[in-house]
Each structure stands twice: as structure tokens, then as C-alpha cells.
Design a protein that fits this description.
The structure holds two protein chains of two kinds. Chain A has 15 helices and two strands. By secondary structure, chain A is an all-alpha fold. Chain A is globular and about 70 Å long. Chain A starts with 14 loop residues before the first helix and ends with a helix. The chains are: A mainly alpha, B mainly alpha. Chains A and B meet through helix 6, helix 7 and helix 8 of A and helix 1 of B.
Chain lengths: 412, 52
């Protein structure tokens, strides 16, 4: 039925099962849209946020998808600026995943601000001393870059490509993609960093506060670093999931291996710096503010030292060691474990830097207040996942996302 | 955001922040404009070639 739209030489499932699959995911999407409308119509009373938790599940989801979407800027940086040519075989998918992550982040922010009609205030009345203003500007601009990077892929659709203007436009965009990749790397460095900077500058919240250099706390650099390390791991993870779902090999092993190796070294160096940062914070910074290390991890029902171990050892050291050791990296079981652990590690880091920062009591009469999200918050957080699955399914079906697919899966 | 907004101040913070933003937006804007204009020229050239 839609065979004229499917890229030439590639095999796709019949139209019926495809529509049924999209329909099933759309049901989840509609559940999220319903919750989103409830929040917009009735207000933020639909959430479990309160005076303790002005930042909650949505901001964690925001920071997490932005970190996981970091695979787009870092892979683009490696491909176009450093010149790792093999990565041209996965850059399309990295861009698509980045596009989904950043559009999701903006959707979540649109729900979280409570008054989306006033969303433009942050641009028009910009407070140039605010880390969040920098995030808003760079996030929006970088989403523009990702849209430009995704555009040539859409234009390469079999039918659209027949229009001469679109054919030339797509070709020209590819020709100067390095300009957009460099702009994206510049923007990403600052907004990934500023998201970390937000907790780092909170001198009234000793769990998050850090010293730093000039106006930037150390968390600024740690966030950018961790996004560059874990983002490509997420790209690889989604590629592997896509291969399982489609029952096809889509990217050659040497491409995945190169990206995983670079990601492993980024993760290894990051985790060393993270350990040094944590050690200095625990022994110098926090005590200087009147806190002992264990004040942040005791007398509550949830945040124990286990979460620090989960983030640093399980989500940092172990995947880093596996990914930088060639023998273990080439073992499929170890490899996928490392990729999953690296993704979990960055998710836990973002949770800790948003939720635990707010949970820790800072005044003598304060107590630990734990937070659990409302179903509306959960539904609106799952909404982008359903949207992402649909966009990946449509892009995979109608666009030449994987340049090596035809060679790896010749149609008989 | 702009010098005509009431809260604008001509200081280093505004110049660095807005300068960085302007640099990025200009790179994107000029890049996409170049691609569109070149695509129009290429399309006309191709059509002219077909007429010959």
C-alpha cells in the first residue's frame, strides 16, 4: 500500500501490522495527552509537587533525555569536527534520537511551566545571570540545529527526493553539515553544563553546591562530560533494540565498536573526575557548610549510600572498565550490560542532582520530605517515550536512516 | 533580550550572553539561507540544461 514511499532496495513489514503497532503505541500516547490536557486545564494541582519539590519528575525527565540525547551532538562532533568517518553510518540515527529527546524535553517543559502561554517571557525578559536562561536559549537553538540536521533525512524520502529543489537542498545541507554540527557542539556544551550548574550554584542546598572556576561550578563540566559519555551509549542501546525489533543487522560492528570505545574512555575519565569531585565535596565543601557526609544519606526511607554506589560503581566504573577493555567490549553479553549500566548511571545522576538535592533537610527544624509522582506526572513522562517510538517507526519505515542496511540485508 | 527592552543594560554579561546567542543563530540562519539559495540556483541550472 505504501511501497512507493519505502526506500529502494529495503524490505519493510506489511502495512497492516505496521499500522496496528503504531495504533497500540498511540493508545499510550493518548493517555499521556489526556494527562497533559488535565495539567494545562486544571493546573499544577494535578501533580504531587509542593513547596519542597518545585522541581520533580518532569525536571528529572528533562535532564535525563537531554543527557541521553547528547549522543547527537557528540557523535556529530566526532564525525564532522574530529573526522571519524566511520560514524557516518550511525550519525543519522543519533540525530533522530537527539531530535526526539530534545523535542520531548521541550514538551515536558511546556507542561511543567504551568503557564505555557507565558513561556516566551524567559526569552523576551532574559535574566542573563541565570543558568536556566542559558539553558532555555541553548536548548531552543540546539533543537533548531537538530531540526536542520534531521531535515535532509526527510528530504531523502523516495518520493520527496524526486522533486529537484528538495534533492538539491538535501545535498547542500549535507555539504555544510559541519557548520551545523559545530554550532550544535557549542550550544550543547553550554546547555548541558548549565543544567549541572543549576544545582552547583545553590549555596543554600549543600548537597548540590560545588566550588568551581569563574562563574561555573564543577557540576557544569561534569554534566557536559557525562552527557558526552552516556549519550552515545544510549544511541547504541536504541540501535541494538531496533535491530532486535526489526530482526536485522543495521550497523556494522566496527562502527558500534568505535563509538563504544570512545564512549568508554569518556566515561572512564568522567568517573575519575566525578570520584575526585565527590571526595572533595564530602571532605571539604559539605563540612565547611556544617554538614557531615552521612547527613545526606541517613535518617530517611529512601536515600541511603546505596544510591551513590549505584551511580558511581554500577553506573560508572563497571561500564567504563568493560567498554575500554577490548576483550570485554567484544563480548556481546558484557557489552550490552555495560551500555545499559552507563545509561542507568546517568539517569541516577540526574535524579540525585534534582530530587535528592531538594529532599535533604537544610534547616534545623526541617525533615526529609520524600516525593512520589502523581499518575498525571507519570503519564506525561511516558508520553514522550510513545512519541519517540512512533517517530522512530515512521522514520525507519520511510527514510534511509541506516546507510549500511542494504549491504547488510540484501533483498533476495 | 533586545536593547529596546526596558531591562536591557549595556554591560559585559549582556554582550557575552547575547553575543553567543547571536553567533549561533547567525550560523544557523546563514547556513540554511545559503543552502536554500544554492538549491534554487542548482534547480534552475538543471532545468536550463534539460531545455538545451
Amino acid at each position: 500500500m505504501d511501497s512507493a514511499l519505502i526506500p529502494k532496495g529495503l524490505k519493510r513489514c506489511p502495512f497492516g501490522p505496521f499500522v496496528m503497532g503504531i495504533g497500540a503505541v498511540s493508545a499510550v500516547l493518548l493517555w499521556g495527552v489526556f494527562a497533559m490536557l488535565l495539567v494545562w486545564i486544571k493546573g499544577l494541582n494535578q501533580t504531587n509537587m509542593n513547596d519542597y519539590y518545585g522541581f520533580a519528575l518532569w525536571i528529572w525527565a528533562d535532564l535525563t533525555v537531554i543527557a541521553l540525547g547528547g549522543g547527537a551532538f557528540f557523535t556529530g562532533f566526532l564525525r564532522y569536527i574530529i573526522g571519524k568517518d566511520e560514524l557516518k553510518n550511525i550519525i543519522n540515527y543519533a540525530v533522530l534520537i537527539g531530535f526526539i529527546c530534545y523535542s520531548s524535553a521541550q514538551l515536558i517543559l511546556g507542561i511543567d511551566v504551568g503557564q505555557p502561554l507565558r513561556g516566551w517571557f524567559i526569552f523576551w525578559h532574559a535574566n542573563v545571570h541565570s543558568m536556566l536562561t542559558e539553558v532555555a536559549f541553548c536548548l531552543t537553538a540546539y533543537f533548531g540545529v537538530l531540526t536542520i540536521e534531521y531535515l535532509p533525512l526527510i528530504l531523502e524520502n523516495r518520493q520527496i527526493d524526486k522533486v529537484p529543489f528538495f534533492h538539491h537542498l538535501s545535498h547542500n545541507l549535507h555539504e555544510i553539515m559541519a557548520v551545523f554540527a559545530a554550532t550544535g557542539a557549542f550550544l550543547s556544551f553550554f546547555h548541558q553544563g548549565s543544567l549541572g550548574g543549576v544545582s552547583g550554584v545553590l549555596f543554600g542546598r549543600p548537597f548540590g553546591f560545588r566550588e568551581g572556576v569563574f562563574i561555573w561550578p564543577w557540576t557544569f563540566f561534569l554534566f557536559t562530560w557525562s552527557a558526552a559519555a552516556a549519550g552515545p551509549c544510549f544511541t547504541i542501546l536504541i540501535t541494538k533494540i531496533t535491530e532486535v525489533v526489526t530482526q536485522k543487522k543495521l550497523v556494522k560492528d566496527n562502527v558500534i565498536d568505535l563509538l563504544a570505545k570512545i564512549s568508554g574512555w569518556m566515561l572512564a575519565t568522567y568517573i575519575v573526575v566525578k570520584i575526585v569531585d565527590t571526595w572533595y565535596w564530602a571532605t571539604v565543601t559539605a563540612p565547611s557548610k556544617g554538614f557531615n557526609f552521612m547527613d545526606f544519606y541517613s535518617d530517611n526511607a529512601f536515600y541511603g549510600p546505596w544510591i551513590l554506589m549505584l551511580e558511581i560503581i554500577l553506573g560508572g566504573i563497571i561500564p567504563a572498565v568493560i567498554l575500554i577493555t577490548e576483550r570485554w567490549r567484544k563480548n556481546p553479553g558484557f557489552f550490552i550490560t555495560a551500555i545499559v549500566l552507563a545509561v542507568i548511571g546517568v539517569c541516577v545522576n540526574r535524579w540525585v542532582m534534582v530530587l535528592q538535592v531538594l529532599a535533604v533537610p537544610v534547616l534545623p527544624f526541617d525533615r526529609w520530605i520524600l516525593y512520589y509522582p502523581s499518575w498525571q506526572e507519570v503519564a506525561t513522562t511516558i508520553l514522550p517515550v510513545a512519541y519517540g517510538i512512533i517517530l522512530i517507526a515512521l522514520s525507519y519505515r520511510y527514510l534511509p536512516i541506516f546507510p549500511q542496511e542494504q549491504e547488510l540485508n540484501p533483498v533476495k | 533580550m533586545f536593547p529596546f527592552n526596558f531591562e536591557w543594560v549595556w554591560d559585559m554579561s549582556h554582550l557575552v550572553f547575547m553575543g553567543g546567542l547571536g553567533f549561533a543563530l547567525n550560523a544557523m540562519g546563514l547556513g540554511i539561507t545559503y543552502c536554500i539559495i544554492k538549491a534554487v540556483i542548482d534547480t534552475f541550472k538543471e532545468q536550463g540544461g534539460h531545455h538545451d
